[in-house]
Amino acid sequence: MLAHEGAPALSPASVARRAGVDKALVYRYFGSFDGLLKAYVEGSLSWPTLADVAGDADALLALPFGARCALIMRRYAAALRARPDTVAILAAELLERTPFHAALEQRREQFGAALFQLAKDAPPGVDVEALATLMTGAIHYLLIRARQVEVFNGIHLASDAGWSRIESALDAALSGALTRAPASARRPRARAVKSAGPAD
Q1: Whether residue 11 sits in one domain with residue 84
Q2: What is the distance between the alpha carbons of residues 127 and 124, in angstroms, rounded to a whole number?
């Protein structure tokens, strides 16, 4: 219902009707309608879990920083592709904003904060939050676009082959960029000093 009718359509009666059950079951199993919504927000249906994206944390931390970030983004894209309803909700959020969407947003921010714990050893000068925002924003845009547009820049967004190309580009961009020292951390080049002429 979130994906196709939007948050304003949610109610105990409408959800029970869609599920084919009596609405009394909502209260029996979740205590209240808010309890049902809370269970959805906190569950793996609404958003990928840390295990989906981080996997074995020790093995992940053993990777070079750039390769680690690339693997996280690859897994993140795959986890969202496996949740088309979540992508539909992301698309709907561009048009509407409700308290329920705010709760979903808080859940995602908690997820991001947990992932950032795996990036405490970032090279000097790397803004991990900004880098993650850029990459995840691109992934969200492409997944949302794929709901309406099949091909973008010659890449078939709904196909595994198309996403394999995107993931390879993520690998190249992150692994390459993060193995070089960022500009702010590089040693400044010596400036040529023009010798002064003889004094008058």
Answers
A1: no
A2: 9
